[in-house]
Amino acid sequence: MPQSQIELSTANLNLKGKNAIVTGGGRDIGRACAIRLANAGANVAINYHSSAVGAKDAASEIEGAGGKALALQGDMTSDAEVDQLVEETRAMLGGRIDILVHVTGGLIARKKICEMSTMHWNEVLDLNATSFFRLVRAVVPHMTGGGSIVGLASQAGRDGGGPGAVAYGAAKGAVMTMTRGLAKELGPEIRVNSVCPGMIDTEFHKNFTAPEIRGHVANITPLKREGATEDVANLVAFLSSDQAAFITGANIDINGGTLFS
Q1: Is the model's pLDDT at 91 over the cut of 60?
Q2: Cβ atoms within 10 Å of 207's Cβ, excluding its own
Q3: Which positions are catalytic?
């Protein structure tokens, strides 16, 4: 990303002095979210599992633009590594955590129900939904009034996803239901919202969605394009900020008009 695009500015969205964790921040939507939060003034801990280059590059860009960021490896399907991420973040950025953006997740593989093992089902639920539970549980004791949690659900949580995505759709549906329940449990001190992206130009769709299907979806979308990772990051940053102070328990669609809910 060009230097000019990550120039730190708090002109519109002010997160100056806030400490944020972005999980799954080494690529695509997670990386865009980390940079957008930093652009608004937040100090950002960028968690990654295997995307070390992307996470470290994002942290270097943020630091180079005058912000504060660190890249921390960790498996968010491990209780111990989730706890370690939170403690390392607190040690390096300060004891308080103001923002959690949970991007960790994935389809893993397309498997229809009759060919799906229980192991695959559990793996998909653990990666997408249980990891969200782990992060929230670990972060909440260190959040004070005004804290914000943003989860990454999916359009698949609304429509069930495409062929072979039943487990993924179910996991993202769980994230959406958790969002509503957590908003009631953690308010008024902490707001909890999630975003439901449709077709976004990411490695996810490059790996799991055929080009002709991507082209068709873009063509039938009112805005006639796929979304960009920056589109999602802008929404996440807004939900993380005080400008969204009266929004909680919401699962917000961002799909260019493909699906209305």
Answers
A1: yes
A2: 11
A3: 168
